[in-house]
Design goal:
Two copies of one chain form a homodimer.
Chain A lengths: L3 E7 L3 E8 L4 E8 L3 H4 L2 H16 L6 E8 L8 E2 L10 E2 H8 L5 E5 H12 L8 E6 L3 E7 L2 E2 L32 H4 L1 H14 L15 H9 L3 H25 L3 E5 L7 H14 L9 E3 L6 H8 L4
Helix pairs in contact in A: 2-3, 4-10, 6-8, 7-8, 8-9
Pfam families (chains A, B): ROK
EC number (chains A, B): 2.7.1.2
Enzyme class (chains A, B): transferase
């Protein structure tokens, strides 16, 4: 039984690397730059070099490493094949095979970054102790990950957990980045909340501290105003909460998770966000799922390396 | 390696039993009555007797049987525990343990009936060849099942695949059997379609053969009228198709299946139903999932015994 495992989280500007014990203890983390030039051809070799250097530094033998888990910003199927990762200048890539070859045949598993974050939160974060989880990540966009029986649901096209593109408002006329209309991402991402806020302020006379911000309004400003009792912020967050709570209730009808984890930058608003969402979730949820806990993610930017590493451990 | 496996599908009036080869060939099927008296205490002993009698009749040894799979009309978790099955007069029951004890320790697995039907359709029906599937069953109610990596997603409360209670119309005022409002079941079950039809006919002047039926209108009558070019039936089926197609698109964002299977009595309308639903599915689906095939279930009432048996075979 190996004692170590690596978790690698590839972003558009830097690669986060983690060396873990197989019991989930993070021993060390570091970053290397993501070299996207030449079609990103150096990214995997750079990662392999960094892993090998860390093993040499620590005196870790190859047979004491369970393997290397890697996540990337793009759709990865359950065979570890990526179809495209625009931010890395990658097209189709068999990540598992290429990285394993660079590492002398070491075990490698690959996943989408949001899916890995969900697995990380299950292993060591907000969903610790569960094996079935829905995670939604509220950032610039809305991502997500579904964990069933301790494993990522990658999906037939690597689109498992793409819950940000669930249509929650068929009548919406604005177009989502994905080309559809009325996606959850358009309502509950950081930019989506700003959109809801601007729409609300333009169509209501409610006095609000948010008006002074004009164009510089942000999701954080909306939640800050809510905490100060701002009536417009209350209405805006209510709309956000309705969309997200109802959507989570639908997802729960599909996979009936033990726990729902909310992460991403927007979730820094804290428990007040969870309370609002939970209210609408419980209204709309199927009776058997009404008490499913909704919790904050707790690993922040480390969720990816945790989840990537966990893929190698049963 | 055992050659035989039993699949048992327990309904409120009869128990369907199937003897299969482990390669999926159905050798024989038969029914026994469901004795619901005395809290349904005889149901599992009756099943055990019937299985043992069939083994004796065919000269099948216990070690040549992979096990017995059983499905029931109620929520079953991934340990094979039922919380309640009203139609069987059962409350909490550890089905796996009780039936295995009756069978001298033989391997037993248990599932919800709609979930087993989904697994059956994956093994030998409309979803044959896939390992990741969403099934929706349009009957008196709307049930469903989710298969990930060849296994039923039972869910933390046995509510995996309870897609009939996804809220698709938050503004709906009529109450669903589950106590919520605007469930998919209220729009797309056999009774839901009748409800849509009555509402449509009451609020439009469109001439329609459906009007002659008065109160005796049925989902079948609506689809029959559609096939005859009835304009009101077209509008009613369009509304049904919008609800179901959009809901399936949301489910696909969650688990990204290889195939979506539509079964149940309403699906006897055939390909014209699939075509209507697929149109709205493709409009609303995330780009990676737009081409996911939507197909008709093909096992009819045998889906349950197939899926129950399949649980014992990897």
């Amino acid at each position: 039984m190996a004692n170590y495992v690596f978790g690698i989280d590839v972003g558009g500007t830097s690669v986060k690397c983690g060396l873990f014990q197989t019991d989930g203890t993070l021993l060390e983390k570091w970053e290397i730059p993501t070299r996207t030039e030449n079609g990103g051809s150096e990214i995997l070799p750079d990662i392999a070099k960094s892993v090998k250097a860390k093993m040499a530094e620590k005196g870790i033998a190859a047979d004491d490493v369970a393997g290397v888990g890697i996540d990337v910003p793009g759709p990865v199927n359950d065979k570890g094949e990526l179809s495209i990762a625009v931010n890395l200048n990658w097209g189709y890539k068999n990540i598992v095979k290429e990285l394993s070859d660079e590492l002398g045949g070491m075990a490698v598993k690959a996943a989408n970054d949001a899916n890995a974050a969900a697995l990380g939160e299950m292993w060591a974060g907000g969903g610790k102790g569960s094996k079935n989880l829905v995670m939604v990540t509220l950032g610039t966009g809305v991502g997500g990950g579904i964990i069933v029986d301790g494993k990522i649901v990658a999906g037939a096209h690597g689109a498992g957990g793409e819950v940000g593109h669930a249509c929650v408002e068929p009548e919406e006329e604005a177009v989502c980045n994905c080309g559809n209309h009325g996606c959850l991402e358009q309502m509950t991402s950081a930019t989506g909340i700003v959109r809801l806020a601007k729409k609300y302020l333009a169509s209501h006379d409610t006095p609000s501290s948010l008006r002074e911000r004009g164009e510089s309004i942000s999701a954080k400003a909306v939640f800050d105003a809510l905490k100060e009792g701002d009536a417009a912020a209350e209405a805006i967050v209510q709309e956000f909460s309705e969309y997200l709570g109802r959507a989570l209730a639908v997802f729960a009808c599909v996979v009936d998770p033990e726990v729902i984890v909310v992460g991403g930058g927007v979730s820094k608003a804290g428990q007040i966000l969870i309370d609002g969402v939970a209210k609408y979730y419980r209204e709309a949820a199927f009776i058997a799922c009404k008490d499913t806990p909704i919790v904050l993610a707790s690993l922040g930017n480390d969720a990816g390396i945790y989840g990537a590493a966990k893929m190698l451990i049963d």
